[in-house]
Amino acid sequence: MKPFYASPWLAGVPGLMLILFCPLRGARADDYFNPAALEFSSDQHNAADLHYFAREGGQQPGTYPVTLLLNNRVIDSRDVTFVQGKNGLVPQLTVADLSGMGVNVEGFSAFSHLKKDEAVDELGDFIPDASTDFDFAHQQLNLSIPQIALKMKDRGYVDPASWDEGVSAAFVNYNLTGSSSRTESQRWNATLLSLRSGANFGAWRLRNIATWRYDLVSHWQSQTTYLERDLKTLKSQFRVGDTYTSGDVFDSVQFRGVQIMSDDTMLPESQRGFAPVIHGIAHSNARVTVSQHGYVIYETVVAPGAFEIKDLYPTAQSGDLDITINESDGSVRTFTQPYSAVPYMLRQGHLKYSLSGGRYHYSGSNNLRSPEFVQSTLFYGLPHDFTAFGGAQLAQNYHAVAVGLGKSLGDFGSLGTDVTVARTRLPQGQSSRGQSVRAQYQKNFASTQTTFSMASYRYSSSGFYAFSEANAMTRQAGYVANKRSRSEISISQGIGDYGSLSASAYVQRYWRSNSEDRTLHLGFYSNVKGISWGVAGFYTDSTRARKADRAVSFNVSIPLSAFLSDSAVSYSMNASNDGDVSQQVSLSGSALQNNNLHYNLQQGHDSQGQNVNSNGSLDYRGSRGSVSAGVSHDRHSSEFNYGLSGGIVAHANGITLSQPLGDTFAIVRVPDTADVGIQSSSNVVTDGRGYAIVPSLSPYHENAIELETETLPDNVDVELDGQTAIPTRGAIVMADYATHVGNRVLFTLTWQDAFPPFGATGKIALAAEDKNSSTSGIVAEKGELYLSGVPAEGVIEVMWQEEGVQKSCRAPFRLSAASGTNPVRLVPAVCQSSTGI
Questions:
Q1: Are 670 and 737 in contact (CB under 8 A)?
Q2: CA distance 694 to 696
Q3: How far is CA 280 from CA 153, 246, 288, 347, 686, in A?
Q4: Which residue stretches of the chain have pLDDT < 70?
Q5: What domains does the chain contain, in order, with CATH numbers?
Q6: Are the CB atoms for 827 and 813 separated by under 8 Å?
Q7: DSSP assignment of 521-548, as one string?
Q8: Cα dihedral angle (366, 368, 369, 372), rounded to 10 degrees?
Q9: Residue 223 CB neighbour total at 10 angstroms
Q10: Range list of H helices, 43-202
């Protein structure tokens, strides 16, 4: 349900009073009433100091917890002090506050007379056309600031001051799988438990990955442990422990040590990756539109003269950009700027780096060399769509240096080349020198729907060893079959509305060996009116295989929504090079209200009909984890398998179970309110204590965490139904929702044989440890006071000012059992002086 304070019913009480006692709006006049003109039908003629309410939306000055919005965009939540201004309450925001919100205070001379900690009363007196709007009912303060008065920021910019390090907490992400198999002669069980656990302390993140396996004997292995934090000023991540080097210049290797490397997710989206700078000339105040593949990806207004656009979001890695200039006189000019980018290309002036140092570690063997080493890489975006890069690897037995250059060639795609020179000290004592040269090409031909996702070729001389190859050599082995050449290509060709043809190939050859690794894939895939189908061929051969594998497959999936919702029937056929042809028919789909339950039934057989197999599985995905079970049977064996996965989060307020967790996630708290749904998080609801986990958030981005208010119980209201979280990488953020749990009551208060003064404020007096926040209301002429979240028993605190003196009274109450269907209870209460209770 929606928050009740936003309902028309609640607005009716104070709103009705304003309608009854305010004159009609006149031309060029604000709504106003004279409190002295009020006449009361009751014996109580005193009224609270009402001049604050004389104007529309008026409220008493004070400090209120508010949600801050800048041009209708949420930027913060904080306590703000309000004072009476010319037209109502105005916030007391300092010059430093405004600057932190992105207001260009240096650009307006009126601010120069104020100190940074001095409050600004009327914002419009300092910035023309600026204003503030305080929505008291929703406790929201919106600052309306002209765009020209804001600091110039890249699109998608998020102020680092708003990045949230999160709360201190610990978690375990688990995935348990097991099976029990039986054949005619034997039976065996196998279990695998994978754990990814961590703990957060301020900006530091401790992480561990471990596995436990049981198959006749028990095996425990801790694979990776590291401590990490971000370095905001450097836009980088610092890590110490077990990790991997970056793989953009040299092959990635595992090591134990220290690493610092750039984190592009800290940059605005419009400054990540590579996108070209667009130059043009406008003859008037013109609107410039940039489109790609028929979709508008950018639009702005430019002044007459030369312009450049350099904050495009990275889209496809290649493709023509269509630029349209709409002049103010109605004339339109267009031109096309083709571009492509190999993966490591950067925008002009941008830098990316990594620095790693420690001891080489290969978990697959204890017999390899494990020297200490240092690796550094650097990328820099140059003018004219060039990107220069390089790196070095230094160890006692190995030295390597690499340099390279990437270039967008416009209509002809993009090309990147690099060369690596290495010297290796072999186990026998002699040295080996060699070079490795690599070329990469990428291009999207929009007119023919042809995409070269990547065409790459690397050639290495016989004396060249990669760092991992150099450490794989032992005195006993003498040498390893180091790589000689590697070729890769991936092509996709669209065929109108009929589908797409894709092909990929990979070939790697070795020195001192006649064997090679080869992989080839060719396929056609289509989707027509919801029916998807495809046919593909595969070829695989490797140095470790006894023979090459060749296979052809065909599959088709037909939805059955007309007969069975959220389900489909599928058929697949696979033919291998040994002459075996297998066929499978399956029925799959989902059930229950939120599609929590997924099922799959499958029947298959081979070409000889000798091996008929049957399979069935169920997978339930709930708010606190997932559980699965399945059975399979053929003429040789029967098997039962099961799985359990999810997360366990330990935080200051207890333990909460969740779906499988990402590295960055949120704890949602709706006190003592169960089964409240979270938007954009499938099957996530609060538990019995009111806690839920949003399992994955994007770091350094704005993430909306919104409640499904229709799932709130009738006796619960929330002050806000949505929040914005901007977590750092690996953060566990808290989204805390203040609730008003209880009844909705229209009290009729009496005081000293009459009524409390009209315009007094009343609220429920709460104990300091109470988890709820208290709503407040305004006392009407005959003592009417509406409040939500009212407990079954308590005290109402009523306050008002009389001739500048603060006065108050307290009204104890106890609600009787509810009767009827009216959601609002009508309750009388007697208000007594505070000293009398």
A1: yes
A2: 6
A3: 21, 38, 10, 18, 53
A4: 1-59, 152-156, 269-285, 292-308, 310-322, 328, 335-343, 362-368, 444-455, 474-480, 542-546, 608-610, 767-774, 820, 834-837
A5: 34-160 (3.10.20.410), 163-194+560-738 (2.60.40.2610), 235-273+347-438+461-476 (no CATH), 275-340 (2.60.40.3110), 742-836 (2.60.40.2070)
A6: yes
A7: EEEEEEEETTEEEEEEEEEEE-TT-SS-
A8: -60
A9: 14
A10: 95-100
DSSP notation for 439-498 = EEEEEEEGGGTEEEEEEEEEEE-TT---HHHHHH--TTT-----EEEEEEEEEEEEETTT
So what's the pLDDT on residue 665?
A: 95
Residue 804 token pair: 């500048």
Q: How many helices (H) and strands (E) does the chain have?
A: 3, 52
Q: How many CB atoms lie within 10 A of CB 116?
A: 12
d(CA 422, CA 399): 6
The pLDDT assigned to 609 comes to 62
C-alpha 204: how far from chain center: 20
Those residues with Cβ within 8 angstroms of residue 603's Cβ, 6 or more apart along the chain or in another chain: 584, 585, 586, 612, 613, 614, 615
The burial of 237, by beta-carbon neighbours within 10 Å (0-12 exposed, 13-18 middle, 19 or more buried), is given as buried
Query: How does DSSP assign 117-161, residue by residue?
Result: TSEES-GGGTSTT-EEEEETTTTEEEEE--GGGBPP--TT---GG
Tracing tokens 């997360």 back to the chain, one arrives at 647
CB atoms within 10 A of CB 437: 16
Residue 60 C-beta-side C-alpha neighbours within 13 Å:
16
Q: Give me the pLDDT at residue 17, please.
A: 38
> Would strands 450-460 and 483-495 be described as parallel, antiparallel, or unpaired?
antiparallel
Q: What is the Cα–Cα distance from 71 to 91, expressed in whole angstroms? A: 16
The residue assigned the tokens 């505070």 is: 834
Q: What is the pLDDT of residue 366?
A: 57
Inter-residue contact 558 to 568 (CB < 8 Å): yes
pLDDT digits (tens, 9 = 90+) for 504-514: 887 888 887 77
